[in-house]
Specification:
- This protein is an alpha/beta fold and about 425 residues long.
- It contains 16 helices and 17 strands.
- An 8-stranded mixed sheet has the order 4-3-2-5-1-6-7-8, with helices on both faces.
- A hairpin with a 2-residue loop joins strand 10 and strand 11.
- Helix 3 crosses helix 9.
- It is globular, with a radius of gyration of 21 Å.
């Protein structure tokens, strides 16, 4: 099949569960020679994975990178900081399509692993939307659990933490995000103890970062000081995780120098997290969809003293939306809101004069109607029939600029529209 057909094949696969045995059966023999770094969690997986992969590339380690997400799979599998060879992925898709059918997450991971094996990669950094898939990977000396929070499904953060802990295995080193909720950290500590995995938690006091009005960022973690293309507290935490993951790999026998860590952290471009694509007018794209991410975004905007923006929000899930809107209004996570009773919905000063709710591609318009009603408790909110309509209204009514957030699908659609306008 062609690369276009391969991308379409993976995109059309259904959601579902694959057993460890099914996934292992889909791996080719060369996959057994690859060592993996699995990255699980709710938020921050993409940034953490990209930073670590850039460090490995700076070190000269032959490494692969797989991202979960909405873009075509050929754009989400990379080897040595370059998109995977299209012919290799097409051949991999041919083989998988002729075997037992797998659900989408498992099939994509199998395709990525098979490409890494065929290319002779030493290491591969892989995002795991389902941490249970990690059990099928042949070798994982180091793993990560990024920030855990509401994920749009009716599950407690404790349950989400327990699921994310599925990435751990005996004698591996797991690095988790700094400032995890106490209940999440407790679950991870218990899980690590049960399976004999060492847990590393970056100390928030070792992280310092500066954010200027022009959205420049410089982060220091334990003496590693670099300019960082990603803004906000979550970005600083991701950088700290990438440093600790590199140090963990050193302990597992991989040579990663301080110079490679600094070079890698500084080299990564921002394509997803608080991405400023224009200063005048100010246009920001952010794939944030959790309350923690929304709070981090608002803190960046407040630090830059931004006011009188319009926001376009394209949430794909209703669960957790109230907490998302509240965090985007106040800058407080749900845990912080419980402690701070001084603000009422709709009464906080924030950067947004107007908020437009849109339905992302493949979404539910009736759900967006309900989301708009929820948003009205916090903002002057209006529903639009499309992102194109929302962008047109935002441009007409804003005094400063616009923000697009709520998920990767909305951010990607808006990016294409704005670049071509």
């Amino acid at each position: 099949m062609t690369i276009e057909q391969a991308n379409q094949y993976f995109a059309a696969l259904p959601d579902g569960f694959a057993s460890t045995e099914q996934l292992r059966a889909a791996f080719t023999a060369p996959v057994q020679k690859v060592q993996f770094v699995g990255v699980a969690g709710t938020a921050g997986k993409t940034v953490t994975a990209r930073l670590l992969a850039a460090i490995l590339h700076a070190q000269g380690i032959h490494a692969g990178l797989y991202h979960a997400g909405c873009r075509p799979l050929s754009e989400r599998i990379c080897i040595d900081d370059a998109p995977v060879d299209e012919g290799l992925l097409a051949l991999t898709a041919d083989a998988l399509s002729a075997a037992e059918a797998l659900p989408q997450d498992a099939a994509e991971l199998a395709a990525a692993a098979n490409c890494f094996g065929a290319a002779g990669c030493t290491l591969a950094v892989v995002e795991l939307p389902d941490a249970g898939l990690a059990e099928a990977l042949p070798g994982m000396p180091v793993c990560a659990v990024t920030s855990v929070g509401p994920d749009g499904v009716s599950r407690s953060v404790e349950r989400l933490a327990a699921l994310a802990a599925g990435v751990m295995r005996k004698e591996s080193i797991c690095v988790t995000a700094p400032e995890q909720p106490k209940s999440v950290l407790s679950e991870l500590i218990v899980a690590a103890g049960k399976c004999g995995c060492e847990l590393v938690v970056p100390d928030p006091e070792d992280i310092t970062f500066l954010e200027a009005e022009k959205f420049a960022s410089k982060v220091d973690y334990g003496g590693y000081t670099v300019p960082l293309a990603f803004l906000g507290r979550h970005a600083a935490g991701s950088a700290a995780m990438a440093v600790e993951l590199s140090l963990a790999l050193c302990r597992k026998g991989f040579d990663v120098t301080d110079d490679a860590i600094l070079e890698g952290l500084a080299a990564v471009e921002n394509r997803s997290s608080i991405r400023v694509i224009s200063q005048r007018p100010l246009i920001i794209l952010d794939a944030c969809r959790t309350p923690q991410q929304a709070a981090a975004l608002l803190r960046v905007l407040n630090m830059a003293k931004v006011r009188h923006m319009s926001a376009i929000i394209g949430l794909a899930e209703e669960e957790g939306a109230e907490a998302f809107f509240s965090a985007l209004e106040t800058g407080l996570t749900p845990e912080e809101q419980k402690k701070d009773k001084s603000t009422m919905p709709g009464m906080s000063e924030n950067p947004f004069d107007k908020v437009y709710l849109v339905t992302p591609a493949g979404g539910d318009d009736e759900m967006t109607v309900r989301l708009t009603e929820k948003a009205k408790y916090h903002f002057d909110a209006e529903m639009c029939t499309s992102i194109a309509e929302a962008v047109e209204l935002a441009h007409a009514n804003t005094r400063r600029g616009l923000l697009v957030c709520g998920g990767e699908a909305a951010a990607l659609e808006a990016a294409e529209l704005l670049v071509n306008s």
